[in-house]
Amino acid sequence: MSIVRDILRSAITALFAFLLLAGAVLAEVNFERGQLAFETASGDRITFDVEWALTSEQRARGLMERPALPDRTGMLFDFGETRMVTMWMANTPASLDMIFIDETGRIVRIAERTTPMSESIVSSGEPVRYALEIRGGHAAELGLEPSARLVLPLDLPK
């Protein structure tokens, strides 16, 4: 009986240590901020204050645990190359619009009002360089549609 108790105690201790370490790693992810703009077909500009998700750690953390996003804010994921992208909403309590953008600034797809806390895969549908996440439904409210283009080059932090 004491062997089972020791094994159980060790397992609980290991799980506790893992959860503390995982929490510390997630808490340490910082994002620099900047601005980006889309130009509509009519020539109007739609601007956003964004956090830059440039590293694999930043992209993995994304907007997890964020309860809501204010208007005209978001997170831009730069994948560093053009490729197929899949994302999900695990640990993300607020619905988001995911705007997938190719290397020329063309909007490839807008996944509107994604399901909070879902582990369902959201695909770019074709190779992209960037994904912008904003508050769910905000793209339609602003009139942001595939005819708009991301203004490049981006002023990314060094």
The proportion of residues in beta strands is 25-35%
Count up the domains.
2
| CATH first level of the largest domain | Mainly Beta
Low-confidence stretches: 13-22
The largest pleated sheet is described as: 7 strands, mixed
Query: In CATH terms, what is the fold-level topology of the largest domain?
Result: Jelly Rolls
Q: What distance separates the N and C termini? A: 58 Å
Sketch the topology as an H/E string, one letter per element: HEEHEEEEEEHE
Q: In total, how many beta strands?
A: 9
Question: Which structural category fits the helices and strands?
Answer: alpha+beta
Would you identify the CATH architecture of the largest domain? Sandwich
Description:
By secondary structure, the protein is α+β, with helices and mostly antiparallel strands. It folds into two domains: 1-30; 31-150, Jelly Rolls. 23% of the residues lie in helices and 33% in strands. It has three helices and nine strands. It has helices at residues 2-27, 56-61, 138-142, and strands at residues 33-39, 45-53, 73-83, 86-87, 96-101, 107-111, 122-123, 128-135, 149-150. Strands 6-5-8-3-2-1-9 form a seven-stranded mixed sheet. The longest helix has 26 residues, at 2-27. The protein is globular, with a radius of gyration of 19 Å. The N and C termini lie far apart (58 Å). Residues 13-22 have low confidence and may be disordered.
